[in-house]
From TrEMBL:
Xref: Gene3D superfamilies: 3.10.450.50
Highest taxon listed in the record's lineage: Eukaryota
Annotated protein name in UniProt: SnoaL-like domain-containing protein
InterPro entries xref list: NTF2-like_dom_sf
Amino acid sequence: MPFTLNHTHLTSFLGPCAQGEWEPFLSALDPNVHWVIADPSPNGEYPLGVYNVESWKEKIRAPLAKVLATPIKMVVDEVDIIDLKAIVECSGYATQKNGKPYNNKFCWIFIFDEETGKVVKIREYINTALVREVAGGQ
């Protein structure tokens, strides 16, 4: 039976992010997800580019984790579902080790596989200048 995308499915893996728990989110992604942050041809400009789960953990998550004192708590602001596509607007909150806030806005466009229900494509829009400022030197 083909997968049907709904709010319950999204909440199952996005809800825990509000507590800073990201493993359900990562488990909802196909390991070979095609994850584009802002621009697929970034010319080496951090954090723009194309990632899968492992390269995202290494090149995006790890540098941020080095400078954050708390996990990012991501709250869903708005969701729109169109067939196997979800457009999710979020706000993320964390504290840097230097005591300053790290508050960012996200817009994720997820495409789900109709058989597995896993996210197979992500287009992410984020304040990349803030990410560079906070973690770009790592």
